Structures are given as C-alpha cells and as structure tokens.
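User: My advisor, Dr. K., asked me to get a structural model of this assembly before our group meeting. I'm new to this, so sorry if the format is off. These are the inputs:
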Amino acid sequence: MKLYTLLLLLFCAFANAQDEKNAINTTIEQGYQLVKNRTMGNCLACHMIQDEKAPGSFGPPLVAMKARFPDRSILFNQVWDATTMNPSTSMPPFGKNMILSKDEIEKIVSYLLTL
Amino acid sequence: MNMKNIIKILSFLLLINSFNVFSQNVASDDAQMFKDYFSKRFPNIEIEEYVDGSYIFDEDAKEQWLEIEDFPPYEFDIERGQELFETPFTNGKSYASCFENNGIGIKQKYPKWNEAQKAVITLEYAINQCRESNNEIPLAYGKGDIAQISAYMAFTSRGNIIDIQVSTKESIEAYLQGKKYYFSKRGQLNMACANCHVATSNLRLRNEIPGPMLGQVTHWPVYRSKWENTGTIQRRFKGCNTQVRAKALEYQSETYRNLEYFLTYISNGLPINGPSTRK
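Assistant: The format is fine. Below is the predicted structure of the whole assembly, which you can bring to the meeting.
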C-alpha cells in the first residue's frame, strides 16, 4: 500500500512538471504565432528576427533579448506602450490602443525573451 | 529679476514670435529645411533624383520599374484622358476653357490657393469645378475618368518645374494645417505620415521602402499594381489612413486639400514626372 501511494505521488509530481513544461512551450509557441501574424503583432514588419524571412528595419533587431531586458516588465511596457520611452517612436502602442490584449502581450514577451 | 518678470518677458517674446510667423515665409523655410534634411541624410543622392521615390534607394527595384515604364500600363489612361479632356460639354465648351494655357502643361501650379474661394484648389478639384460651372455632373474622385483626365494633364506637364505659391496669411494657415496633419499621429497604430516618409526613409517595412516625403507628389496620378488601375494622390492618402487603422477622410476634404498643398510645396523646384507606376 505504502509503495503504491509513493509511486502515485511520484507519478503526479512528474506529470505536473511535464504539464508545466508543456504549458511554457505552448505559451512561447503562441507568442511566436502572435509575433508572426500580420494582423496581430506583425513584429517582422519593422524588426529582424533570426531565420525569419523579409524582416523590416524600422526598429532594432530582436536579438539577445534576455541580456537587453533583464527586467521582464520593461520589455512588457515597451510592447504595451513604446511612446512612454520615446513619444515620437513609430512603434504602435499595442496594449494601450488595444491592438493586443494583456495576455497576448505576455505571450509575446515570453517568446521574445527566448531570442 | 524675479520669476514673474521672467515669465512676462518670455510671454512677450512668444507673442512677437507668433506675429513673425506671418511676416516671414515659414513655408519657404520649411522647403529648404526638408531638402537640407534629405541631402544631409543621403549625401550621394541629388535632390532632382527624389522624383523617382523609393527606387532611388534600391537599384534592383529601379531596374524592374524602368522596364515597366518602357511599356507603361497607364498609356491607355493618357489616351482616354485626352479624349475626355477634348470632348466638349453639352454647352459646347470644354475643359480647356477653364484653365490657363487651355489646360496644357499647368499641373506644376496645382494645388493653388484661391483667394476668392479662400480655399486650396487641387487639380482634380478644379476639373470638377470646371464641370459644375458648365452644368455638368462632377466626376467621382479617386480613379476612373478623373484620374485619366488628370493623367493626361500631368503628361502634358512633364518636365515642368513645380511652383506652388504660399504667400498670403490664409494660404499659410492652410499650408500649416496640412503640415500639422502630416506630422500628427493617428489611428490605432498611432502613426504619422512623417513616421514612414521622413524619419525612416531608406529603412524597410517588411520588403518595402516607403517613398521619401521629398518628391512624393511629382509622379501622380499613378498606376499601382496593387490597384490594377490608375488612381489619384488622394486615393493614396485614404490608403495610408486605412493602413494605420485611422478613419480615411473624404476625397477633396479641406484637410486632404491642405495636405496636398503642403506636400506639393515641399517639392517646389522638382519636375512633374507623372503619370507613373508604383507597386
């Protein structure tokens, strides 16, 4: 009986960890899809991402994001409303102008931090 | 000196300055300023080259474009435009009767400020005013007959140097309104015309390079592959508004006319090379 409980607990813990990992992967994958979608993030219109076709050059390349944005919230705010950092920026305020939801921007940020 | 006095002096200086706006010509300062801006940014490109739009930044694209211009898709529009232009109205008169030099080779003077109407008159607007004064129904703006007549009139003006006058107090106000519109952010994407056509010239939006502000007006009307026909510059204004997810204005609305006035003035000194083709 004891052994059975132990095994069950172990199994649950493992399954949980696996679920969590899957969830993170899904979030990143959804973020990637939002980044690529021309009517959603459409980030490639202005930003280069390695291995992606036909990127624009209005904005800086999206590379080394973790090093450039050690604080996740600064990157989130940049996508939410870039005009707070630079009022004349060409970057649309995705959150403030309701182009994307808070949840969608969180997913995009998760993806961007993998670059 | 205490704070109050400083503020008094400052506001006095501001007041004097606001009078100055009308005593000197802001417009001619602007035209020089934008030309200086582009020649400083792209020292290897002559000002005259800007009539070719973004092709000046991309040799391959320019080659392809020049090949299209060998057998231009707007050729039919010029012929049809001439036919329409020369067909008399019901009263026997024709378009020629409404324009200086019978309407030949005059595009470089439009848009022009009309002191009597207190309004900016674009070429297409003048074409319809001509129709109305001859008891004809005005044409629909944007494409079709009006774009073809305008294409013919541009064709007869090729090589003529753009010479827009902005001098009276009210014409300067119209000019400034157009300028303000060009530099104001709008739409869900929060973008000003200037965001794509001034600050970021020679940078890419995906695969495309937006045309620089200087020379933006010289080649209209344009046969756009995207449209698969020929359209007027204000049709493009509407497209730009829609692209930044703003509400497009009406054709020949006061704001669009003023915008065209401002934009054309900036290209003073460049030759008319319309009609042309664009992607």
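One thing worth pointing out at the meeting: The two ends of chain A are 48 Å apart (CA to CA).

User: Perfect, thanks a lot.
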